[in-house]
Amino acid sequence: MYVYRIMLFLVFGGYLLSPLLMSGWSSPETAWYRPFVIWGVLIALSIWLEQKRKLDER
Amino acid sequence: MNASLGGVFLLGAGYLALLFACALAVERGWIPLRLVRHPAVYTLALGVYASAWAIYGSLELASQVGYGYLAYYLGVAGAFLLAPVLLLPIQRMTRTYQLSSLADLFAFRFRSRWVGTLVTLVSALAVLPLLALQVQTMGDAIHLMTGAASPSMLALVFCALIALFTILFGARHTRLHARHDTLLATIALDSLVKLAAMLILGAVALFGIFDGPADLQAWLDGPGLARQAEVTHLDPGQWRTLLLLFFAAAFLMPHMFHMTFAETLSRRALLQAGWSLPLFLLLMALPVPLILWGAQRIGADESGLGAAYLAFGLSDTWWVDTLAFLAGLAAASGTLIIISLALSGMILNHLVLVAHPPAYQPDLYRWLRWLRRALIAAVVFGGWLFYRTVGVHHDLTTLGLASFVGMAQCLPGMLAVLYWPGANRKGMVAGLLMGVLIWLLGLWLPLLTGMPALVVIPPGLEALQGAPVWYAVALEALAANILTFILVSLATRTSEGERAAAEACSVDAVIRPKRLPLMASSGEDFKHHLAEALGEEVANREVDRALGALHMSPHDGRPYALRRLRDRIQANLSGLMGPSVAQDIVDRFLPYRRDGQAATDDIHFVESRLEAYRSRLTGLARELDGLRRYHRRTLAQLPIGLCAFGDDGELLMWNDALAELSGIDGASVIGSRRNSLPAPWAELLGRVLAGPHSHLYKQPVELAKGQRYLTLHKAVLSNGDEERGGTVILIEDHSEMKWLEDELVHAARLASIGQLAAGVAHEIGNPITGISSLAQNLRYDTDDPDLLETADQIQQLTDRVSRIVGSLVGFAHGGRHVHGTTFAPVTLHHVTEEALHLIHLARSGQDVVYRNQCPPDLTVEGDAQRLIQVLVNLLSNARDASPEGGEVVVAAEPEGRGVSLTVTDEGPGIDARVRDHLFEPFTTTKAPGEGTGLGLPLVYSIIAEHHGQIHIDSPPLGRERGTRIYMWLPTTREDGENRDEPDSDR
């Protein structure tokens, strides 16, 4: 359940801060693939939390 | 651009034939089940979310708002990243109560069929533009490939094929809430095709038009910069609103709800989708800007293709067009299949069945199936019609956003289902109507009629002036919806039924189901009651199905089991006809008995739910649950029988010790009434429950193990404001103690008889001595040979009587432990003869043959009378154990510094478990009342006084049966020897 709270915090924090990220992505200095890299990192974090949750529930 | 209409038809029909083949392969079992049911297949099936919007609409949006197009993917990804807190609770509810759609869930939670109808109508209206969008992309793609002026008829043919597929493979089961392996596998294939096509198109752009990522970056920093400057960036409010709309779509859109929850998949699969679906969406989103930039670089965007269809302009080669067409067709077909399936179910349950309840139908299942098929065709055709009449006049973004904004009006209701038990029906309906009204006037009706959008900007929201219509309408509708919902819910009363349903639906549900008896008394009885509503055949099948799922017997009459059966039947009927109709049927035909008694909490059910949800508890709740489990275990494993009854006489606990004593498993009786317990428990427990006393001592009962004596103690639990009342009963098995008491009484009686016999023997001795003296005198008084012989015989007989009397008196006195007994040499042969002599006096065992094989010259140091007592005891045991005509042998031989003496019989032998305890008082192998259990302990103590050893061989070495008592006695007594205990192997 604690693991879920981390994800809750991340998703809602991301939701609130996402306009800042958006403006960063749109600037010409930013590499075109940056949004996808951030997204990938979030998925990797989610996989890690899922593994942790499985261990918790064992 | 140069394909013929026939060629495109063959391409599309060929692809749809591939779907048919895939479905057939799964159905026939040609594809291994472990592959079909792999969580990856479920994830790919969830990829149905990526509809034609993801292929074409995203390109259109990306060309307008740049990275803003990502909202379509990130919103859903966010919802799935929150799967454990958001989607799992919904899955739990839908599985528990067999709810297959959003309308089912709302109707269940807000306890109203009209809520279900309202949600169905809103869903149908909201989904129509999305359906039209799918058909429109098909039509546009056909037009782009063939140049046909009117591609709608070919689009209609594709729609017909898609409807046929859905009817054949999706509507085969009557139940909505069933796993359709074929459907899942086909939609997964759809997702795989569109993903592969998009990745290839992205690669064509990245490596065919650009020279890889570096070249792309160089173009973006150089010539492309001007093109990117044309993009309108979404302001933070619009971006967040888009994210929210797509976040809500993840679980509100009928096709997403159906795929995520109605296809009964495991919790594990949904948790895995928490990261695998965002990964799938990432891969789907990645090629979109690549295709856009590639098309911009080669100037394809200026060729009049339309921003949505730039993928067709990436290359002049036929296969790029084919890929772009197939990606769209795969996405559109998947979405059409699942939306038509989900929406037809909603319309059936919440419009058709509500307007026309299923009165007696000769074949209910068939009737439902055909209705559903007709509705599937109607939904797909509705989508085509909307495209033909409305869709063609609008771009994809307008159609898509109108749909998503409409569906988002159910978001406040859904959040209340999960997190606000205080919300009520009136609030939800008022809020939803308010939001839908604003949406209809602002987006939907203008879409349909072409009239200008009616958007009223309230004071304080002037910032919305000039904002895109979709944004203003979405914000206003949602705000009005939420405010109305909250205010009306707070201002109006919530019904009891709603409150109970709210508790059942809440994420941190405190489930406190009430306990009331049912009118029906068994599973068989359920069938008769339900037959009135469903017909005999359907009622039988539904009840049998529920009984099978619960592993219950049709004759089980336990109130607890009947309540679970009722719940299960309601859930199953809900899967068949929706929760509203199911609840009506169950309430009418399987009612509770309300004979004045108040409903009490169903503790057993609450406990079973707590057990099931244990892993979800955290913090204090987890600690408390740990404590509860500890106390529960303590009671369950108490070495004394324990049972507990509720206030209404329903059995709540039956612990392990009681299960062992009674031979009745707790699971089979918990939840039953006291009077329905098997004999003798119903009567026995009834006596203690009804009686004025708290204790019942040593009550004789006949159990499977034979007669037992049970002591019962009762404690009444007081019924306070917050506490549940009831009665707890402890049951102790006092049979052993009762038997010991009986044995002691028996032994005391035997001892009295022995003393009496010794007294009688003593009294007989005197006249016998007189007779002997008179016979002696007679010998002196006569010379008559006949009289002399008679006197001689009288004397022999009186000697025999004296010897018998002497033995009897000696045996009686020998039972007492006498200190300072003087030991003398004793001939074992003689002692054995004396013992045999006494044994022969007994009437029983006359047919047993005794053999004295002791050598006449073998002596030991001991007390002859007490050794006779030893042998009498052992010989009488041997006699009792021997079969008819059996042989008992007493043998002796020198062994070391003593003599071994054995008594061997041919009886059945002694059980090893009893053998080790035979020298303990009151241990006997004889039937109760026949043996005292004191003989062998006496033997043991006498041998101990003689410093000997004793043990039992059963069976003796080299034999298959029989028993040998082995004793060793010293030949001479050693001075200073002070051994109190004999050696034995016990």
Q: Going across the major beta sheet of chain B, what is the strand order?
A: 4-3-7-6-5
Oligomer: heterodimer
Count the E strands of chain A: 0
Element pattern of chain A in H and E: HH
Quickly give the CATH architecture of the largest domain in chain B: Up-down Bundle
Radius of gyration of chain B: 47 Å
Separate helix tally of chain B: 38
Q: Which pair of protein chains has the largest interface, and what are the residue counts?
A: A-B, 31 and 40 residues
The N- and C-terminal alpha carbons of chain A lie at a distance of 13 Å
Question: Can you tell me the CATH class of the largest domain in chain B?
Answer: Mainly Alpha
Kindly name the structural category of chain B: alpha+beta
- Biggest sheet architecture of chain B: 5 strands, antiparallel
Domains of chain B (count): 5
Catalytic activity (chain B): ATP + protein L-histidine = ADP + protein N-phospho-L-histidine
Transmembrane segments (chain B): 6-27, 39-59, 71-90, 114-133, 153-171, 183-210, 242-261, 273-295, 323-349, 370-387, 399-420, 432-457, 469-490
Membrane topology (chain B): Multi-pass membrane protein
Family (chain B): Belongs to the sodium:solute symporter (SSF) (TC 2.A.21) family.
